[in-house]
Structure formats: C-alpha cells, structure tokens
Amino acid sequence: MRLDKYTVMFIPEGEARTHSYHFSKNIFLFIITSILIIILCALGTMVYFIPRISDYKLTKKRNDEFMTERTKILELTRDLERIKQMDDLVRASLGTTLDIDPEPVIIDSSAGILKLPNRQVSYIENIPSLAPIAGYISQRSINEGLFIKESHNGIDIVAKEGEPILASASGVVVFSGWTYEFGNMIILYHGDDYFTHYGHNKQNLKKQLDIISRGEVIGLVGSTGMSSGPHLHFEIWREFIAVDPLIYFPEYKTYDLTSSNE
Fold first, then answer.
1. Which residues make Cβ contacts (< 8 Å) with residue 246, sequence separation at least 6?
2. Which of 118, 126, 163, 195 is a plausible cystine mate for 159, CB 3.0–4.6 Å?
3. Which residues contact 5 (CB under 8 A, 6 or more apart)?
4. 43-59 pLDDT, tens per residue?
C-alpha cells in the first residue's frame, strides 16, 4: 500500500477532543529536512563563531595590556624628556657662565664653609634646609605605581595669596618663567646636584642667573597654571631624581591635611 499522506495528532491533557493535521508526503519531508538544516546551521554557526569569540576576548585583553604599557612608556618618556630639558637648561645656564673651582680651600670643616675666589660658598647653606613658606600640606609627593597613573613630584603647601616665598637654600636661578602646568615657576640650582622648584607663583621676583641667598624672597604665592587655589608647589631634586620634601622638612607633617597623614 502506497503512503501519500501523513497525519500528526495532538492530544491535549485533560481534554477529550484531539487535534490532527494532515500533510502530504512531500510537505512532511520538506518540514523534516528544513528542521534538520536549521539545526545543522545552528551547530555550524556555533562551531565557527565560539573559537573566534575566544580569540576576540584574548585579543582585547592583549590590546588593553599593550595600551597600559604604552601609557607607562609615554609617561616615562615625558619624565626623561623633562630630565633632559633640565640638564640642558643647567648646562646652558651654568656651564659657560659660572666658574667652579676644583679644589676649594676649607675654612671651617664643621660648618662646611669653603673659600673660593671672590666669594664664599657653604655646603650647609646650599642644602635645602629652610621651609619656603608656612602653611598646610594639601597634597604629598606621590610616585607612580601599579595603580597610580600620575606622579606628583613634590608637595602642595596652601598659603595666603601674595605670601612671600623664601629660597630654601642658597643657589642660582636656572629658570624663571611660565610653564603650562605650574604657571609662574622658579627653579634654583644649589650645587651638589640639588635643585628646588617653586610653582604656581603669583609673581616671580627673580630672573635667570640671579644669585640667591638662603631665606631670600624669590616670589609670591599665587594660583597660576593648573591650580585650584593659592598654594606653593614645592619640589626637591637630587641627581635628577625627585626627593620627598618631607624628608628635609618633617615639620610639615604636623600640618598635613592629606589622608596619608601618619
């Protein structure tokens, strides 16, 4: 007996009436074939795309790591460029202008006073030892780490606008001018690879190559550059490496307003 039709019957639970549908052989085979094709396409799609999704996640992770490393390299390049500019500035300002005597005569070894032609230089006077202003610490020195993307090479000292800024040690002005980040800024070179930076000044009172004595007024507290209020940004550098100013001026810790106050 030849079969030309198929019957599909649905029997709902709890109902006496059944539902039946009649299909020709060709339609039935078409439906079954279509379902099989859909299942095979779905399986093929999963087999094709699942490995590529894993590859995408791995590629994205590597790209994020690459961007992180690239950011670190850019920041290191910026710091190296800053050191290079500082080195060029010192060489241009001091190398052909000031005469450094190789063998000074010691006058007082306990005070560190040396006798040079036409002038006397004290190494004690040339090491940062005088607080530039009195005020409260609003931000401390922060070195770049795993979770820190930016460095803060100094301390911010909040003070009244117009307050006089004192040189923390004797030295010579190697830079006095405007910078985008720190506004009016003065950089002093103190010898023995010591530098001090004074930023956000309302006004610089000294110019390049001026000889400065310890405690001399070099500028006025302001809020120039990238600043949210009147304060002094103060940095100490030794051998082109930023040093925490609180090491030289521990008295500031008493007036530390930051969360890292110990």
1. 140, 141, 155, 252, 253
2. 163
3. 22, 23, 24, 25
4. 888 887 777 777 777 88
Of the candidates 168, 239, 155, the residue with the CA atom closest to the CA atom of residue 199 = 155
8 Å CB contact between 186 and 176: yes
* pLDDT single digits (tens) 57-95: 788 888 888 787 777 777 777 776 776 666 666 665 555
Q: What is the pLDDT of residue 117?
A: 45
Q: What is the 3-state secondary structure (H, E, C) of the chain?
A: CCCCEEEEEECCCCCCCCEEEEEEHHHHHHHHHHHHHHHHHHHHHHHHHHHHHHHHHHHHHHHHHHHHHHHHHHHHHHHHHHHHHHHHHHHHHHCCCCCCCCCCEEEECCCCEEEECCEEEECCCCCCCCCCCCCEEEECCECCCCCCCCCECCEEEECCCCCEEECCCCEEEEEEEEECCCEEEEEEEEECCEEEEEEEEEEECCCCCCEECCCCEEEEEECCCCCCCCEEEEEEEECCEEECHHHHCHHHHHHECCCCCC
Q: Rounded to whole angstroms, how far apart are CA atoms 207 and 23?
A: 100
Q: What tens digit of pLDDT does each residue of 132-145 get?
A: 999 999 988 765 44
CA distances from 107 to 110, 114, 149, 173, 192 (A): 9, 6, 48, 26, 19
Closest CA to 184 of 137, 219, 138: 219
